[in-house]
Amino acid sequence: MAPSFGTSGLRGLVVDLTDDLITDYVHAFLTTMRTCETLYVGRDLRPSSPAIAATICRVTQAAGVDVVDCGALGTPALALASMSAGHAAIMVTGSHIPADRNGLKFYLPNGEISKSDERSIADAYARQARYSGHQGGTYTYDDAAETRYIARYIDAFGTDALSGCRIGVYRHSSVARDTMEHIFNGLGAQVIPLGNSDTFIPVDTEAVDPATKDMLARWCDAHALDAIASTDGDADRPMLTDATGKVIAGDVLGVLTARTLRAQAVVTPVSSNDMVRRMPEFTAVHLTRIGSPFVIAGMDAARAAHADVVGFEANGGFLLGFPAQINGPLSPLPTRDCMLPILAPLFAAKSTNQSLADLVQNLPACFTAADRLQNIDSAKAEVFLSNLIDNATERSAFFASFGVIHSFDLTDGLRVDFESGDVVHLRPSGNAPEFRIYAQSASEARAIEVMEHAKSAVATQIG
After folding, report:
1. What's the half-sphere exposure (Cβ side, CA atoms, 13 Å) at 346?
2. Do residues 161 and 187 lie in contact, with contact meaning Cβ atoms separated by under 8 Å?
3. Average pLDDT of the segment spanning 209-235
4. For the whole model, what pTM was predicted?
5. Is there a catalytic annotation at residue 95?
6. Are 128 and 24 in contact (CB under 8 A)?
7. How far is 97 from 433, CA to CA, in rounded Å?
């Protein structure tokens, strides 16, 4: 399967991300922008990323565009650097997927590209468009981009915001593992580094595996931690546990963060926990398709009626759309960020003398569970889901054991609401051989039960 655009960026197998393909996509991106004087470049820690980043830098310079190489840093840190300077950027990352895959995330001077931008880039790639800027593009290495990102949060929350907190940082192979430690230290927390790896580990913060959950619980117990924090590979998705090592769902972190920031309007995908619609603090909640470009488009539309708009995805990636005020000012950053939805709940818990578990317990009782089937036959999965969507008889038969169907939603994949209040949401990945299963119910145990039942049922059809 050739590299393609999915929910966030271009991804594909490393063997297919050839120098020629990278060259063509760099030119396609530059051509789509029409005028580009400077391009920022960053990368994650997977083994293939340095060579791909080097190719991007070389091709960009040859096209007459100045390059600012920010090295290995998180996607939101790169976005902050490039957007603050008013320039475009390309991040080399495969996010949470295995190391045999990689990809590119494209940023315009004002933020992430839209779906229409993706189509324009794809069209320019197909015709092998070539960009020609000024003569002799220059190369600069910027080792301060990450430092500015760290300062962003220390300045906003304050140097004693997390004093007295013991926070473990699960380092694995997140490109932001040092960044997280610097920020926590700067906010007064005591940091305990955990699980550093020199081998790339694909951590999916939206579907943490049982072995990792057990490891997190053991670490919390052994080190008497208040929380463990981590991210996916490129640091645009958060992972945060409570003091028992229990992972707090990303959409719950989104709700807590939006409330802490005193947001008026929230934009989030249809896969997010319904509790966001039950929060009296939010004036408006808008649901979108899954993927940050759709969330950003929804935020742009929401600004017509609301000034203080935020967005978040079910995986927790948070987008700040207005100038917020915590202990200090926090400027907008309308791209998926991992640190804000980690820091805001920790700050809220400490400020109210609660534990993270207490903070979550006091939210509306609505629980979600998510998992995925990997290495599937994507064509078979597409046929399966299409049959469920188009054929009422097949849909009723497949979901008969879940209860009576109340309604279904086709915003992104197939979301089925049952009369019991349970929800099952099925969706194939756009650029990986994976099938996502989401479930929701009034209790955590029931949400897990529904999710596992749905995963098993789907596996019998596409496994």
Report:
1. 32
2. yes
3. 95
4. 0.88
5. yes
6. yes
7. 10
